[in-house]
Give the backbone structure.
Amino acid sequence: MKSYRKELWFHIPTRRAFVNITPQVVECLKESGIKEGLLLCNAMHITASVFINDDEGGLHHDYEVWLEKLAPHEPVSGYRHNVGEDNADAHMKRQIMGREVVVAVTEGKLDLGTWERIFYGEFDGRRKKRVLVKIIGD
Ligand code: ZN
């Protein structure tokens, strides 16, 4: 069995954003040479997510509005976590959107559904953060 590991780095200039990272993940898969197996992709930070959904701007806007309703950034004083920091909402948004995805690798390709794309969800950006890609198989 082969094993591959890579860290992808992101520096999102805004507090929140969604980035389609499918092309970078596909590059990792090519680099790994693995044809059959499993790919894990996870955010390595507790205020960022990796998730799979549609690459559609309206939906991303809707996520932003929905997440702000669930865990509004302001007022930052409304969260007990926000002592010396202001990112309690980002921890909660990350929890809802998830930490990781697992994708089957079949015949050297990501075995995704037609509209499925892999996204990095940033909820407390303006600094460098990492995503792990781990692939195992043959
Ligand atoms: Zn925090």
User: Anything to note?
Assistant: The first strand starts at residue 2 and ends at 11. Residues 2-137 form a domain with the Jelly Rolls fold (CATH 2.60.120.460). The pocket of zinc ion is lined by residues 81, 85, 87, 91 (CB under 6 Å).
